[in-house]
């Protein structure tokens, strides 16, 4: 037990020193400020009097490095690019955005109007072909949040606590009615 406690204390001191070095490397050894966390978008480093403290944002918020604060609308982009080659990766929750990776460096890209990114082909194709649904969950709205799949009225989404849509499907012979937020009897989708 004592060895384990000693190990935890030593590990804490080492990680505190690494965080403190992060503050001084950013010019915050004598000035207070905030830095983005290296691996987690929902955390940041608070540098106070040369000491570094790891802080978590509230649920549904990410640290915005431009504003230097937790922001519910900030979309954090983590570099998932392979270190070599050229690859196009989809952006989670978006039908039109994608990341172009060239030699490990990421370049944010977006398809033109009326086109959507097809991750299977790595190209922008007519949006109607993919029937892709944008994430419509709003961090500023009061839960629960529902929205219908505009391509299939038997499918609908409920936003989870991280404002990510979870897809559900109505039973056969029913369709989702957005005015009451539930499945109702109806054989066909109403005409748009």
UniProtKB/TrEMBL annotation:
Entry-linked InterPro entries: Chitin-bd_dom, Chitin-bd_dom_sf, Chitin_bind-dev_reg
Keywords: Chitin-binding, Disulfide bond, Glycoprotein, Repeat, Signal
Domain Chitin-binding type-2: 20-78, 81-132, 134-191
UniProt cross-references to Gene3D superfamilies, sorted A to Z: Chitin binding domain
Keyword Signal among record annotations: yes
Classification via SUPFAM superfamilies: Invertebrate chitin-binding proteins
Signal peptide range in chain numbering: 1-20
PROSITE patterns hit by this protein: CHIT_BIND_II (PS50940)
Name of this protein: Chitin-binding type-2 domain-containing protein
Provenance organism: Aedes albopictus (Asian tiger mosquito)
């Amino acid at each position: 037990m004592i060895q384990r406690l000693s190990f935890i204390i030593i590990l804490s001191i080492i990680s505190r020193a690494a965080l403190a070095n992060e503050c001084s490397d950013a010019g915050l050894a004598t000035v207070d400020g905030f830095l983005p966390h290296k691996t987690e978008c929902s955390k940041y480093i608070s540098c106070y009097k040369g000491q570094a403290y790891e802080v978590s944002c509230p649920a549904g918020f990410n640290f915005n490095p431009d504003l230097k604060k937790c922001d519910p609308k900030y979309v954090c982009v983590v570099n998932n690019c392979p270190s070599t080659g050229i690859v196009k990766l989809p952006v989670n929750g978006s039908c039109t955005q994608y990341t172009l990776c060239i030699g490990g460096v990421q370049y944010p890209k977006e398809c033109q109007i009326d086109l959507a990114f097809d991750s299977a082909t790595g190209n922008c194709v007519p949006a109607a072909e993919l029937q892709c649904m944008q994430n419509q969950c709003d961090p500023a709205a009061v839960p629960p949040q529902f929205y219908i799949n505009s391509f299939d009225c038997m499918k609908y989404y409920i936003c989870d606590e991280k404002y990510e849509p979870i897809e559900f499907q109505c039973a056969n012979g029913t369709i989702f009615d957005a005015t009451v937020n539930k499945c109702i009897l109806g054989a066909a989708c109403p005409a748009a």
